[in-house]
Structure formats: structure tokens, C-alpha cells
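Ops channel
N.P.: pipeline sanity check, posting one input/output pair.
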């Protein structure tokens, strides 16, 4: 398994704030849409690996994998966000994130870049989307609107 580098100074996430937090974000794609996670929540990016099915799991959870000796659930963000389902592909990436002191792997289509938005680009999530638990903020770029997620809220079932 080839591990792509993420700075070693990445620490565990702080408690999620209501306001967007500046800093660096890992930007990735699902379909044609762009999403991001705070770099402080991302431990590393790995290529897709075999996933062991687990019983009695939510439909958006593929199963579990072993990440450096820790068992981590694999969340298919395509299913979690109601994109058309498709089987995992070798070109998919897993974002290994730290959430509430535990690791989890988020299956995404492609990892694009690490971005440090300006304060003018970063906005809190609109109040009208308060029911969207994982949505934390938005980043405006010339070509795309990037939705910033909170890893700790991705596994919450509403």
C-alpha cells in the first residue's frame, strides 16, 4: 500500500466550532462536486484497499479495515450524501481521519489538493442548512464552491 504524505505535525482535531476555522484544508471530489476537511482531521491519504464487511452497519458504511494496527470503519461518502452508488475502484482514495479519538476511513473519488483559503473565501455554513450535520463551512473559489465537512459529524445518524 502506497501512503501519500501529509505533514507529520497533524494533530488530533479540536472541538468543532460554530464558526469556520482558518488554516489548511484537504480538498477532494465526489462526482463533480468539491468537498474539504480541515487538515488537522486528516492523518493520511491511502489508495483503496480490501474492505472487510461488518454486520449490522449503516448502508453508507462499507465495512472495516486495519490502519496501522487500529480497526477503522470505512464510510462511503457517495452513499452517505446520496450520490449514485458504485462499487469501490482501485482509483478511489481513503482519507484516514481522526474523529473523537478514533480513526475512520472516508472513501472519496479523488484527492485534489491542500488549500489555505483567505478569510474572504471562508464562510460559515448557511443557517438554512443547519439540518446538514456534517456541513461546517464553505470555501469560495473562482471555479468551485467547496463544502467543508466536520469528520466528527459524518457518522451521526439523524
Amino acid at each position: 500500500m502506497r501512503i501519500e504524505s501529509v505533514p507529520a505535525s497533524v494533530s488530533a482535531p479540536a472541538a468543532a466550532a460554530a464558526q469556520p476555522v482558518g488554516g489548511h484544508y484537504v480538498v477532494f471530489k465526489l462526482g463533480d462536486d468539491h468537498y474539504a476537511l480541515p487538515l488537522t482531521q486528516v492523518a493520511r491519504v491511502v489508495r483503496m484497499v480490501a474492505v472487510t464487511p461488518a454486520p449490522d452497519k449503516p448502508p453508507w458504511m462499507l465495512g472495516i479495515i486495519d490502519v496501522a494496527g487500529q480497526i477503522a470503519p470505512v464510510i462511503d461518502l457517495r452513499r452517505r450524501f446520496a450520490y449514485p452508488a458504485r462499487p469501490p475502484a482501485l482509483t478511489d482514495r481513503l482519507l484516514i481521519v481522526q474523529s473523537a479519538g478514533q480513526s475512520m476511513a472516508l472513501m472519496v473519488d479523488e484527492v485534489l489538493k491542500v488549500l489555505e483559503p483567505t478569510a474572504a473565501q471562508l464562510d460559515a455554513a448557511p443557517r438554512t442548512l443547519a439540518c446538514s450535520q456534517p456541513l461546517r463551512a464553505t470555501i469560495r473559489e473562482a471555479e468551485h464552491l467547496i463544502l467543508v465537512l466536520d469528520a466528527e459529524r459524518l457518522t451521526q445518524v439523524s
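N.P.: looks fine end to end. Residues 1-18 have pLDDT under 50 and may be disordered.
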